[in-house]
Specification:
- This protein is 28% helix and 24% strand.
- By secondary structure, it is an alpha+beta fold.
- The longest helix has 20 residues.
- The radius of gyration is 16 Å and the shape is globular.
- It starts with 5 loop residues before the first helix and ends in a 9-residue tail after the last strand.
């Protein structure tokens, strides 16, 4: 019944559809509206360097925007472009991203366009974690297979909310999980 490539079945349909694998990343944001990164093991005891919630939120936003910028620079034909993405993520999130990007490279997929962070809204901050919600615009992001056939579902929304969790680690916040919020739109009002 499912005729999409295995890596896409694993990702679900980031930016708009159902997902049948618990592992998600920004790749999920590009393909469907359901997603999340694998749960990370409890981080080792870390000392946060954030003096306030505001500082923690600012670090998380800087991390997320850096992560999206690095992801936008990925060229699936050049694995050496993958490494900058991992600077912004925890080890478990990086492992999942690395696997997904490697599979897409092996399949000859081509990514075009950029994900745009429309907004970043802080939710909570503790000594260990920061949570936030971002609105992302994926309307210009494309994925095609080696034959030029689009892998993006036709019903993928242009704008999606993504709930994010960051670990507070020295000296920055690292992206640990992301889950696309279904049933809510963050599309700008017209």
């Amino acid at each position: 019944m499912e005729n999409r490539p295995a890596v896409l079945r694993d990702l679900g349909t980031v930016c708009g559809c159902t997902v049948d694998h618990s592992s998600r990343s920004s790749l999920a944001v590009v393909f469907s509206v359901a997603g999340c990164a694998p749960p990370a093991p409890s981080p080792a005891a870390t000392t946060t360097t954030f003096a306030s919630d505001e500082e923690a939120f600012a670090a998380a936003e800087e991390t997320y925007r850096g992560y999206i910028a690095a992801f936008n620079d990925v060229d699936l034909t050049k694995p050496e472009t993958f490494a900058p993405v991992f600077v912004f993520t925890t080890e478990s999130y990086s492992a999942d991203e690395r696997r997904q990007l490697s599979e897409m490279h092996a399949e000859g997929y081509v990514r075009g366009g950029d994900i745009v962070v429309v907004s970043f809204d802080p939710l909570t901050a503790t000594e260990e974690t920061v949570t936030a919600r971002a609105c992302t615009d994926t309307s210009q992001t494309t994925f095609t297979d080696a034959h030029g056939v689009s892998l993006v579902p036709p019903d993928r929304p242009d704008h999606v909310y993504v709930e994010l969790t960051f670990t507070s680690s020295t000296p920055a916040a690292l992206l640990d999980t992301s889950e696309v919020v279904t049933g809510e739109s963050c599309a700008p009002s017209e």
